[in-house]
Amino acid sequence: MSLRCSNDLLRFTRRNDGVLIALATLACVFAVLNMNLQQTFSYYDVSNTFSSTATLALAAMGATIVVLIRGLDLSVGAVISLSNCLAAANMSDSSVSMIGWSLAGVLVGTATGLFNAVFIVLFRLPSIIVTLATMFIVEGLTLLILEQPGGAVPPAFSNFFIGDAIPGLVQAPAVVILLALLVWALLRNTRLGTHIYAVGSDPDAARSKGVPVSLTRMSVYVIAGTFYGAAGVFLTAQTGSGDPTVGPPMLLPVFVAVVLGGTSFAGGRGGCAGTVLGAFTVMLIVNLLLVFNVPTFYATIVEGGLLIVAVLANSVPRIREAVATAWIVVLKRRAGLPHFARRAAASSTLMRNDETLPANPVGRWLRRNRSALRFTVPTYLGLAVLLLVTAAMFHGRLSLEVYVNTLLVLGSFLAVLGLGQGIVVISGGLDLSVPAMITFSGVLLCEWNAPGSSSITLLVGVALLGALIGSISGIGVGILGIHPLIMTLAMNGIIDGATLVMTDGTPRGVPPGIVSWFMTGKILGLTPVAYGLMLFVICASLLLGRTVYARRLYLVGSSPLVARFSGVSVGRVQIAAYGLSGLCSAVVGVMLAGFSGQAFIDMGTPYLLPSIAVIVIGGVAMSGGRGTYLGVFGGALLLTALTTVLQGMLLPVAVRNVIFGLVILGAVIGLRENQA
Prior knowledge:
Helix content is 75%, strand content 1%. By secondary structure, the protein is mainly α. The chain folds into 2 domains: 50-278, no CATH class; 318-335 and 368-675, ABC transporter involved in vitamin B12 uptake, BtuC. Strands 1-2 form a two-stranded antiparallel ribbon. The chain is globular and about 80 Å long. The N and C termini lie far apart (53 Å).
């Protein structure tokens, strides 16, 4: 009897290890917090904790369901803002209005989830790209509702959600969380719940067993969107107003809560119960920082670090494998054994002698590059059309010399970012730390620019630091096996926090004079950066077209397993890719500081979507393994020209965000045959 009980207990522990670990983590954090409080937790403290956690818990539950099917949803924060602003801007004192706009806030999340599902499932587009484009589309729609914080909801509405359900005994936020967990429990015990775990564990096996994989995935995104909408409605009750910027910063803590709750990004393991515990852990850690008088600037650093540590805790076998591999390499070098990767790389540099190619050099070049031209030529055709439209719009008001110079100067930012982001995407990843790296580098340049300092030394130092930080992301992705989105999202939070700590929230100083001259001066009618851009395009094209590293990069992006069996060090290739991305982001930060004459917080934020848009428009496959820099450069010029046209039409930023999001979706749809 005792043996049977022990086996049952062991089986229960293995089945619920994620929830148990999350519960133990929460208990430890709570114990530390309680010991450092001047008085023990009161009913008021418990009520505040539930109220501050409910929004995060609801949003993280939606994200968890998506992660269970091996998906990732970046639109969560934007949907929260949209739901929040929609309710706050329209709700009145009547019961009908409060109920109606609460439902509208939830349903707008449902509609966004359906929008994501259609493009991800029916058009077979990558979830990361679709939800990223949706994030910017939804942010644009939110700004059309409320351009700045405002609106208000009736006190009765707020009291209903954040007051007491049973006075002095049960808080309303606790009831909201319990109802959400009840919904999850009911869902998990339905056929759809079983299908969710089956699809997350092995989609092909699930399909062979008759599971409707496509319908299951669509249902998941719709359900997740509903959770996001509900989180936005609760946030409206909590704050009593609307704020179009309140949602996006929640993306990092949402994924921290998911990981702390024991849900695996490999899919098929975890659940919302652990996620709720993870959300409480995140909020208690934030409170713990306040108790220790730690500045709030450190919050994103702690959250980013927590995300990385939590993922690593679930990746112990991968870490052991990485350590063992590194040790084998060290032993081989000590023994003087040859490295197969070098022989393979050396052999790959030999040109293929194909007698089927035309004898004409031009025809031979066209035949060899027809695949790349297929995705590059449309970009330049689109650029030509935009240039004609621009010429018609500004005829007689803008000289050709001024327009070309403006196009090259403004396009230089995206051209440099496109190289870094393009290399990462070709390797099979994505870099979400670009905005924070741009801001950090620009701020650091101005902070370090003291009188008498060497400008060259300063520029080299900032560039090398950017490459080093990018390489850390590469180590997490290539060596430790952390998902690229999670690793770079965590690094983005850490870098953001470091920037705030370094400046106390207020950047100081100005860039070196040579940087400002490079971005705003004139040489023969053109800004110096225009000449630098021409040289950069040549070097970048050679890097991705004529080097051994490029061959390894494309092989890793096409199939890491094949690359590994071919003797290519996949980890090194990925580390170099993220290092180059960090370097390019740092260079853009320096360029922006020189262009504007100063650095400011969030100066890199507007460049996340464009950095991805240029590589999509330029024909880089989001699944990795394909793309050219000439295509990326064409995408940078096209997007810059499009921005010029939209600005000439006096369209607000909100509309431009929507258009950019739709442009990305349209470009990816045009390439879906090659990325499926």
